[in-house]
Amino acid sequence: MAGESAAAAEGTTVAGAYLAPRGASAAERALSWAGWLAAAVATLVALGLGVAALLPGVGFWDTGEFQTVTTVLGTAHPTGFPAYVILGWLATIVLQPLGEPAFRINLLSAILVALAAGSVAILVRWLTGRAWLGLAAGLLLATAPTAWSLATHADAHTLHLALLGLLLCLLVGWEERRRSAAPHADRWLVAATATYGVALANHTLALLFAPGIGLFVLAVEPRILLRPRFVAGCVALLVGVTGALYLELPIRAAMHAPLVYARPDTLAGFQYVVLAEQFRGSLQDPFRDPAGSLRMIVAALGGEYGPLLPLLPLGFLATAWWRPRFALLTAPTFVITCWFAASYVNAEIDRYYLGPVLIGLAWIAVLVGGLLGLVEDLVWPRPAGRPGRSAVDRLRLWPLEIAAAALLLAPTASVLGTRYLQVNERNDTAAADWLGATLDRLPHNAVVISWWSYSTPLWYGQLVEGLRPDIWIVDDRTRLDEHLGEVSDVVDAQLGHRPVFLIRPANELAGLAQRYRLSYVDTYPGLEELVQVTGRLASASSGAATGASTGAATGAFTSARP
Question: N or C: which end of the chain has fewer CB within 10 A?
Fold first, then answer.
């Protein structure tokens, strides 16, 4: 562990990394507080960047669901995300003076990404003893395309990112305290255990952290298995925290929360949600095309790191040399998560690379910190016989560290304006405008047979804003949970009793047009349109509709546009 000893000599011991001890010199106090100041700056800048691009209101797809389910304390789609739902519900209360519920949950994402950026700044400071590198790493995370994009709207992956940053800080803090034989060092491991329990109750991606955590704990404390009571206590805490949070699903479902997904108050429903059985077919054979998976991973990481990508493997090698236990902690998580993401075929998988991006930034910072140490020894050799530098010497070398941090930030700074335009959602009112236009055009007691991306803002309008309680929103999930059958079954059951409307993909509408008379209702241009079912086609009643051509189906539409 010669590399770790060298790092400790540069000021990453407990006293240097956390707070300067009593009687410390002014230079030592300055170095100690610099790390916390860097974390504060990274947090505030990241928060400002998120708020500057923040979605002002309701959104489509999962955004609308998270905005709704957190406000009404319901249950979300697999894997349930109970930790995020509970935190979001609390956030809607605490942040109430700041705007409507949708805005508050969007703001929560900006806060969580900001906390992740601050935690990375602290982590890098503890790993390298260099506050300016910590600041650079925090800012790089905050401006990474996916992290910055998620900071602008409601998404449970932002909590996943924040918890990973906190977890790594706690584990490295435990390692530092164990190495220096500090009192009560194991409290840090207990805190890390509780944090990991919350992470497991937020996203099952956290399961992929387990191999690295296990290897790290054994490397730091090889005799820990000889302490069965302590190990059993940590396991009980982990299971207790995770289990207690997951109880939100069956409890709120049993209480008939306004929005519940897949009946998790039953054993089969709970298993279906927690194990994400709905998406089981999305996981492909990870060894079917290893070269293709590797190309996908490199492309995804290249989009996040940009010109810094070549530093990633070098960063890992440097971390393995200077911080071997941290490499042992993070390498399995990095590799397994990337390979899993490349093997999982579903929408918006870029979010799954957030953890590896955070880890890789820490590796790159360790690389730059180690190289800085070598350069500093050339520029300002250490006095003979001294293992490390004095606080005054380290302050004098700050210009070199600032220059290195600036070089790390330079590629991102050069594209910051373009990236802001790509992630900016502050003027995006499409979902809110579409929602208002659609609800205005629905007659009393209408049935709307919708699909996920458009059902979620409809739910928000009805369940959160209290709009149009008379309409019945039938999502594909509703049809499954209430055994309503196919879309045509719902139409047949309601037609003639209630006004029936469709919000369906165009290819599906073409098929339905072979059976029903459909009329477009003008709502909002450029989005899925509202279509009214005005009756059945005579050919459908006689069974001839099955062979209808696409041209005949198109002729069944009429238009209500002006």
Answer: C
